[in-house]
Specification:
By secondary structure, this protein is an alpha/beta fold. Helix content is 26%, strand content 28%. It has eight helices and 15 strands.
Length: 358
């Protein structure tokens, strides 16, 4: 069966890599969308463990100009006469344009469903099924959202920090840092602990989404006989060392609570101490990767971060800075800039710089 996953622009390659690692299959992608083929069981397993995506859609059809559906798609696997639906259009600017496309989709789809003896019921507030129309700049893709929720968010972030970001962005930064399983990583200025938790979920293969039994999929006729498989793959058992620190009591407490909710507390270490204490808390060259999310008020700490990073990192280890897109980062002569990246959500942009210890 064909599937589409929607991602924030910039995360396409990361999502494609994640599909390859979890399902051992190939995928293709364009702006904001990744396409692959898998069984329903595989798609659900992937969705439970996916860290990089917003939505996963059962692919219905795609077109360039005129809205087009055919009768070959098994709508009866997803809809019944008791099912309510909502049509959402994404990737298109202007509410009038989105409304026009929704009406065209409804006009084209209604007679096809009527032939299958399915009476389409619309519910704009609490629908059983979301039919998503996504435009990647060249083509429109239609699909059925099998979870009914934004998978970029995290159920474990019960105690969020205002300077933090959604889980998919955090996962992007973890992978951008070149962190691999079996490595040691330290997250500094951890705030609500999200970056460290995402690193732990990646390295352990623990389920990312905790309420999969409440997803829309279980209302679909095709869900019969399919079970939730939340246990990690034997190939992804914990071998990494994930540590994080913050000197603030509130942040320390929030991070510990979030980690416990995520089921990751026993697979990571969360510390309460200051930046200037790192060289007495850890061994020289102990870590492969360091990550610091630097807000405007933290920018004055740059020299101390470089000093500590030089001590803590192995030769060839990487230091990732995450900051404002307007921040002009000064590169220490002890490090070399490898690459830059960014994550954008609306008008909010986070930029990152990956440095390597010389």
């Amino acid at each position: 069966m064909k599937w589409h996953v929607l991602v924030n622009p910039g995360l396409e390659e990361t999502a494609s890599q994640e599909i390859s690692e979890i399902l051992k299959i190939n995928s293709t992608y364009s702006k904001g969308i990744v396409k692959f083929e898998a069984s329903k069981e595989e798609a659900i397993r992937y969705a439970i463990h996916a860290q990089s995506i917003q939505r996963i859609l059962a692919s219905v059809n795609h077109w360039k100009d005129k809205v087009h559906f055919d009768s070959s798609f098994s709508w009866e696997d997803f809809l019944t006469n008791n099912t309510s639906c909502k049509i959402e259009v994404e990737g298109v600017k202007g509410q009038d344009n989105r409304t026009k496309i929704s009406r065209e989709v409804l006009s084209e789809l209604s007679p096809i469903l009527k032939e299958k003896k399915i009476n389409l019921k619309l519910d704009m507030k609490k629908p059983d099924v979301l039919i998503i129309i996504y435009f990647d700049g060249e083509e429109y893709f239609a699909g059925i959202d099998i979870t009914g929720k934004d998978l970029a968010g995290r159920d474990y972030r019960v105690f969020p920090h205002p300077a933090s970001f959604k889980g998919d962005s955090g996962y992007f930064f973890i992978r951008f840092s070149k962190f691999q399983r079996e490595e040691k990583i330290l997250v500094g200025l951890m705030r609500d602990g999200m970056l460290a938790i995402e690193a732990t979920l990646f390295s352990t293969g623990l389920p990312v989404h905790l309420n999969a039994n409440k997803w829309a999929f279980w209302k679909f006729p095709c869900s019969n006989g399919i079970s939730i498989q939340e246990s990690p793959s034997p190939s992804l058992l914990q071998t990494s060392k994930v540590e994080a620190f913050d000197q603030g009591t509130q942040n320390f407490t929030a991070a510990r609570k979030n980690a416990a909710i995520a089921g990751a507390k026993n697979s990571m270490e969360i510390h309460k101490f200051g930046l200037d204490e790192l060289d007495v808390k850890f061994e020289e060259g102990e870590f492969d990767r360091l990550i610091f999310h630097v807000t405007k008020k933290d920018e004055a700490l740059l020299n101390e971060i470089y000093y500590q990073a030089k001590y803590l990192l192995k030769k060839g280890g990487t230091l990732l800075f995450i900051g404002r897109d307007t921040w002009e980062l000064t590169i220490s002569d002890k490090f070399s800039l490898i690459k830059e990246g960014y994550v954008q959500k609306g008008d909010n942009v986070h930029k990152c710089w990956l440095l390597e210890k010389n």
